[in-house]
Design goal:
The protein has helices at about 5-15, 20-35, 35-45, 50-60, 65-70, 95-105, 120-130, 140-155, 195, 215-225, 240-250; strands at about 70-75, 80, 110-115, 135-140, 160-165, 175-180, 225-235, 255-260, 265-270. The termini are far apart. Helix content is about 40%, strand content about 20%. The strands form 2 sheets. A 7-stranded mixed sheet has the order 5-4-3-6-7-9-8, with helices on both faces. Helix 1 (about 5-15) crosses helix 2 (about 20-35), helix 2 (about 20-35) packs across helix 3 (about 35-45) and helix 2 (about 20-35) packs antiparallel against helix 4. It folds into 2 domains: about 5-60, Orthogonal Bundle (Helicase, Ruva Protein, domain 3), CATH 1.10.8; about 70-270, 3-Layer(aba) Sandwich (Rossmann fold). By secondary structure, it is α/β, with parallel strands linked by helices.
């Protein structure tokens, strides 16, 4: 059996657990060969099947996310390391970077703050886009900070990115031109697919009975730390636009709502009220 045949068979198996079975099979096969997916498709489809592929497929069939199996996830224009205990970055979160770019279309932020940095995805994407900006990533998980520090080195911005172990903005001083934040916003008890529920950290997902607890804590910090001409881009759940906007409005913030590529409410763009 060639690898081409094995990929077709693997995709049939993975259809039971994944909405993207062929892609998953290709990513796992590329990982087994130690090449990227493009190299796999261009150069290796006639190869024999690597021994490691069977074990990788068995892990995926148990709903383990591909990113945890391969240790990598793509975000914006970056390839990042991820591992269990750290939330896997989602394409939907790129909406925050797009919103920030629109805000600074005639300039650039000098200092960027990422609250709940996780893998560092948002902060590193911002620093990659604005090569003169400095950034600070905050997280209460040392596991996440270790991954973020490694990713800053991987993408070549370690000299402009620092990271601190903190509980949101508690005790943090200074002002920031751009604040990015993807907090937990899922209501406790909300049913999630097994890929997420069984593997990703609950502390990065759930936020109280209505999914709003962390916004309540974040609002005064963001209002205090944001510069007069800057903006904060905060991720929300698709049905939370009005409720989260009211929280920030009560702390003196002007609020604009932005949708993701699927047309779902995804980001609040916040500015200090004049």
């Amino acid at each position: 059996m060639t690898l081409r045949d094995a990929l077709s068979a693997a995709a049939e198996q993975l259809a039971a657990v994944s909405p993207t079975p062929r892609l998953d099979a290709e990513l796992l096969a590329a990982h087994a060969l130690g090449v990227d997916r493009n190299q796999l498709l261009l150069m290796h489809l006639k190869d024999t099947v690597p021994d490691a592929l069977r074990g990788l497929l068995e892990r995926r069939l148990r709903h383990e996310p591909v990113a945890y199996i391969t240790g990598e996830a793509s975000f914006w224009s970056l390839d990042l390391n991820v591992r269990p205990g750290v939330l896997i970055p989602r394409p939907d979160s790129e909406t925050l970077i797009e919103a920030a770019i629109d805000h600074f279309q005639f300039g650039a932020p000098d200092v960027v703050l990422d609250l709940g940095t996780g893998s560092g995805a948002l902060l590193l994407a911002a620093l990659d886009h604005w090569p003169k900006a400095q950034g600070l990533g905050i997280d209460q998980s040392q596991t996440a900070l270790d991954v973020a520090i490694g990713n800053a080195q991987r993408v070549g911005v370690a000299d402009r990115a620092t990271f601190q172990l903190r509980d949101w903005g508690a005790g943090l001083e200074g002002v920031f031109d751009l604040i990015l934040c993807n907090p937990p916003y899922i209501a406790d008890g909300y049913p999630l697919i097994r890929d997420v529920a069984d593997y990703e950290p609950a502390s990065a997902l759930f936020a109280g009975a209505q999914g709003l607890d962390d916004y309540v804590r974040l609002a005064p910090d963001i209002a205090r730390l944001l510069s007069a001409t800057g903006c904060a881009c905060v991720e929300i759940g698709f049905d939370q636009g009005l409720s989260v906007a009211a929280i920030f409005d009560a702390h003196g913030m002007d609020v604009a709502l932005r949708q993701d590529l699927a047309g779902q409410d995804r980001c609040l763009v916040l500015r200090k009220r004049p």
